[in-house]
Automatic annotation (TrEMBL):
Native species: Halorubrum ezzemoulense (Halorubrum chaoviator)
Top-level taxonomy: Archaea, Methanobacteriati, Methanobacteriota, Stenosarchaea group, Halobacteria
A Pfam family that the UniProt record links to this protein: DUF5815
Protein name per the record: DUF5815 family protein
InterPro entries with a match to the protein in the record: DUF5815
Length: 177
């Protein structure tokens, strides 16, 4: 049975990539996926979720040191930057909502994707690898670029995500899940 929805056009409603509409209050801070009436599962990411949800601590630290942001509100590389890259690459597969004026929800930004959380995790890792390759290519160090490319031939994104998720025990009551 379908659940009643907030009518479209409401500032407290979010139209999902599949076309369904939900109230922003239906998304809580612990939510990582949304079981939609369309029959699909959509990944849910909020600005309060740490980037370590997708990437190991050491890599997040490297990205924070290496990437200069232009935002006064978000001067440090964080989850909104990761989801911005995903949104740029897959504009039809990601919707975002600015809830910064809605004190009832507990988050300022939310992104809901066409992908489930596992596939989104893979997409984030793939895009970060591309970002890293791009950065190495600008280093004017052919040896470093060759070494990076050799390492990436061996790198299996799906296997990495599988191991990372198992290590993090994403099924547990983990705030980083």
């Amino acid at each position: 049975m379908s659940k009643p929805r907030v009518p479209g056009g409401d500032e407290n409603a979010l139209e999902l990539p599949c076309g369904e509409t939900i109230g922003v209050g239906e998304l809580d801070l612990g939510m990582r996926e949304y079981e939609c009436d369309c029959g699909e599962t959509h990944a849910v990411v909020m600005d309060v979720h740490p980037p370590e949800r997708f990437l190991p601590d050491f890599l997040v630290e490297v990205l924070r040191e290496a990437i200069e942001t232009t935002s006064e509100e978000m001067p440090e590389f964080d989850t909104p930057h990761l989801l911005g890259v995903v949104l740029e690459e897959f504009p039809e597969a990601v919707v975002s909502h600015d809830a910064s004026e809605n004190a009832d929800v507990g988050y300022a930004m939310v992104w809901v994707t066409e992908f489930d959380s596992r596939r989104l995790h893979e997409v984030v890792v793939e895009l970060v690898v591309e970002l890293m390759e791009h950065a190495v290519s600008h280093a004017d160090d052919d040896e470093a670029l060759s070494a990076f490319e050799r390492e990436m031939v061996e790198f299996d994104v799906s296997e990495f995500v599988e191991q990372y998720r198992a290590e993090r025990d994403l099924e547990a009551e983990d705030p980083y899940a």
